[in-house]
User: Fold these one by one.
Assistant:
Number 1:
Amino acid sequence: MDTVIKNGTIVTATDTFRGDISIKDGKIQTIAVNIDPGNAKVIDAEGRLVLPGAIDAHTHLAMPFGGTVSSDDYEAGTRAAACGGVTTVFDFALQTKGEGIIETAQRRNKICEPQACVDYAFHVAITDLTPKVLEEFQTAVDYGIPSFKVFMVYKKEGLMVDDGVLCKILKKSKETGALISVHAENPDLIDLRTEQFLKEGKTSAWYHYLSRPEFVEAEADKRAIHWAKSLNAPLYIVHLANKEGMEEVKKARDEGYEIYAETCPQYLHFTSDVYKREDGRNFVCSPPMKGQESQDALWEGIKTGDIATIATDHCPFQSYEKDWGKDDFTKIPNGCMGIENMYPYMLSEANKGKISFNKVVELCSSNPAKIFGCAPAKGTIVPGSDADIVIYDPNKDFVVSKDNMHSDVDHTIWEGTELKGYPVMTLSRGRVVFKDGEFLGEPGWGKMLKRRRK
Ligand code: DUC
Ligand code: ZN
Ligand code: ZN
């Protein structure tokens, strides 16, 4: 063995127990009550929780978007991930016109591989469904990329697919064992409302919210679920943020359909009121934060198990870029930061008693690992799994500030948020990559995961 984590309280999605963990060659070797470390390095976790590393199944690193490129490249994004206890990052690789699925992932991997500080995978966003791409689904699944994404919005940006294409994709996913994620909002309603607001001179960030309020998202959620049900295809809804959509997910799941919903910490913590703030444009992302009723419904969905995962939609932009939309909300690049905040925020909510620590592990680690095909190597603490481990001090209070974050962005929407408890160490395949506020990893360490869903 190389390392032993001693005296901690191990928390998985299902169990909480005191024990030691030995690590060898990046993998968990043994879990027992008292392991003699011999010459191995000892990490004392007395008074701390020992958790599986989180998986952020939804990021946009170095993504060209909104007239610029999101400010965290693969190095900065995965560095911030490590410092927030995230040991696996799923990024979206956007297909360009005519490009194949594997070709898209390989193009992004050339950029990502030398930069990644933790392990990673790609969901390929399909934007140009040619017959060749449809034929390639099986090859991509067999290659280890069994998850694709489609946007039901962003027509002008060239990312949107229409309902016919969505249905073709869902049908093929059913046949090949792939899982389709959707960004669900209604593009025509957004355009209609935006045009009207601009005509009336209503240009503040508040109108970003009003251009795509609850029902704009709910309609698309219902439509996507309707098509998935009609084809009996599995479906994963990213960044669910509204009550009506939540209800539709619950209904479909109660009927026995394989529908997964992801939400993000920003929807659990902030409401649409943020768009009335002076710095409201910093919170502009799509879908926008919603009202209190929606937030309550998401927390309820967590409790009932109808929210399957938490991820971040991490897509930061600098203040000067957000400022492009000071006088016109349509010019604000859409996206917020969160990769370093997800696990600490959710664990803090558990520490305050809102949900259990096991539930946080389930949402942020075990479920994404299972759903996207990288369990049991990721998402749990068992002999044989990767030693992706977070040591969490439940007594360490922490106030988020741009100065204690590790992203390449000059502000954070989480500024001033008070957290009860904080990660003090992150191990990625047995290597300490974060300790006491300091990043200790290196670019090029992270490996691309090949995945298998079933
Ligand atoms: N929404 C955002 O806010 N940013 C990136 C892409 C998206 O769908
Ligand atoms: Zn999205
Ligand atoms: Zn996204």
Note: The mean pLDDT is 98.
Number 2:
Amino acid sequence: MLLLDPDFEDAVKDEIIGQHSNAVFAVKKAGKDLADFFSAMEDNEYMQQRCADFLDISDRIARVLENADCNLSTIDEPVILMADDLTPGETIQMDTTNVLAFVTGGGSVNSHTAILARSIGITAVVNTGVEADTKLNGHMGIVDGDMGRVLIDPEDEILEKYEEKLKKYNDEKKSLEELRTVSTVTRSGRKIDLYANVGNIQDVVRAVDSGADGIGLFRSEFLYIGKADFPSEEEQFESYKKAAELMNGKEVIIRTLDIGADKKADYLNLGKEENPAMGMRAIRICLKHPEIFKTQLRAIYRASAFGTISVMFPMITSAHEVERALQITDDVKKELSDKSIRYGEVKRGIMIETPAAAVMSDILAEKVDFFSIGTNDLTQYTLAMDRQNPEMSEFLDMHSPAVLRLIKMTVRNAHEKNVKVGICGELGADPKLTEFFINNEVDELSVSAPKILSLRKHIRELE
Ligand code: PEP
Ligand code: MG
């Protein structure tokens, strides 16, 4: 109906004919102008809400014009998906019943696209260097995520070998199920909390199914991306409440909005930045726009009445930022109390994912209840190696002694002030480092749900 609106069509035509703009620009501009027009109707909430619809339809037409429209939520037959690259927004939309695996020519193992694939438990191989080609449509393929291998039209012998491998993998997975309800403890009795990283409610269900001791990282930004406008307080409240209820009293750590860098939402209008990973993202956006931050905090605090919720601030670099974030949180608590709205006991923590935060961890520990070390960003910023850049893989030491030192120092500083420390970056799931984390008294490891049971098995076999 909106598309039939002659005002919209005329605005597009005028822009193309009058301004010689290209079609994509013209459509986006017409959508934006109409959205601004409706959003200015302050006395009519219904009309104001049409603003998001105009942005949504113009964005969708622009994507068709750019030949970029690919709706991954409607794939209706089992496929291996091949793409030059996938954004986190596209990956999160994927219908996982029919996408058996995906393969990208670009991308890197620490990108959010790869992280999402791990949390959904979907087999993926990234950075193959091979361009997606429609000639491959309809061909048989094998995607071996363990070895990072993709085989097209395999011979019968190879296919049989892989069928056996798949059966063995599924049998092993089944046998791990008996570890769902046992505790995560080493042979000598050292207990560690094994939490799950999640991005949406389906992930929380997966976390419950794998016997997670809690949620160590709820990447709340996935509620914001792939949308035409901000999620409302109510929508967020429902998600956080559902997560708390599903976890049935176990801790759910919700990280406040960590948008920016590779996680984009057009409606934020962040503008073009030379170095987005070092630009407007995460807590910086929230401190600059307290109304965005407060809406989210209200939703989190209201949901805390329905379970055990903690809140965590990302990309911290200084004590001052922590103080400002805590102050805004206190303001929100006061506003809720004034309106007699219930909320629970919410622990407040920060991510240690910048070298500055690790170096200042003794001071930061005086201000919060817990730390969670984000090794993905801590590695990127410590080594000055872009986590998105596939070219970096040959230089990147995933077990860099510089990063391990910062982790050790952070845990020591935290424990001196009785502050709990978790690891929620991808290194938390790396079995080669489990002993290091346990020996250095890390309190919690938070990993994607599909990794929980095998990691629990590994920890229970350690001395
Ligand atoms: C991290 O940086 O390690 C982290 C857990 O956060 P994200 O991967 O979402 O940036
Ligand atoms: Mg991070």
Note: The chain has three domains: 6-65, 79-170, 182-460.
Number 3:
Amino acid sequence: MSDSKLLLTLSGLNVHYGRLHVLKGVSLHVNEGEVVALLGANGAGKTTTLRAICGLLRPAAGAISFAGQKIAGVATDKLVRMGITQVPEGRQIFGPLSVHDNLLLGAYTRLRARDRGVEEDLQRIYDLFPILNDFRARRGGSLSGGQQQMLAMGRALMARPRLLLLDEPCLGLAPLVAKQIMETITRLREEGTTILVVEQNARAALKVADRGYVMETGKVVLEGSADELLRNRDVRRAYLGKDYEEV
Ligand code: ATP
């Protein structure tokens, strides 16, 4: 992308959990309109990176900038208003509330501001995930894992994010449902949504991403276009499995 515009930049990010040094100088960027995959094994620091971006952790060192503004240490609710929304690992939907109310809660900052586009956006989410429309009156907690993932993504989109952070959206889902989630990411990308997605399933993530970063023990060890990473020998050996020869 020659006319790409930087939306998010992390430079030299360091995060500690007590005495544990978890992120050791992480630098990466996301351009407007891109889907970027953050890959790596368990414990590499992917979730911690997302938590730092959305204000749940204060980095010990390094900078995060979003749309030209420094945001390290800014409170999460302010970041949501600025346009960063996360779908956390485990979805965390409101189980006792209806599907419809879960979606409305995603727009709470906009409802307070009497934003008239909320109805339109609800319709957009129901178009994106027709099953949520069918189940709009059901309790969120009664949905299947895949439907809850759709609800969590729909709720996040109701905030009209400029940047959507997805943490392992396919975790624990049956292959067909995971495929559906990945297809939704492609559709969102086509509509211009910028996404940073953490995924253990490197193959699935690289199929929908423009670029990717590979993390190991708190550091970015590889970066490149999705195609480059799919062809990279180390990535194939470590994350794609021996059988992945058909690229
Ligand atoms: P996973 O796929 O397992 O979520 P990850 O790449 O997202 O892996 P993180 O969850 O960011 O990795 O964890 C990075 C390191 O930080 C791991 O060693 C983990 O055990 C540790 N860690 C994560 N959360 C905490 C916490 N709240 N307190 C202490 N250590 C933590």
Note: The pocket of adenosine-5'-triphosphate is lined by residues 17, 20, 22, 40, 42-48, 200 (CB under 6 Å).
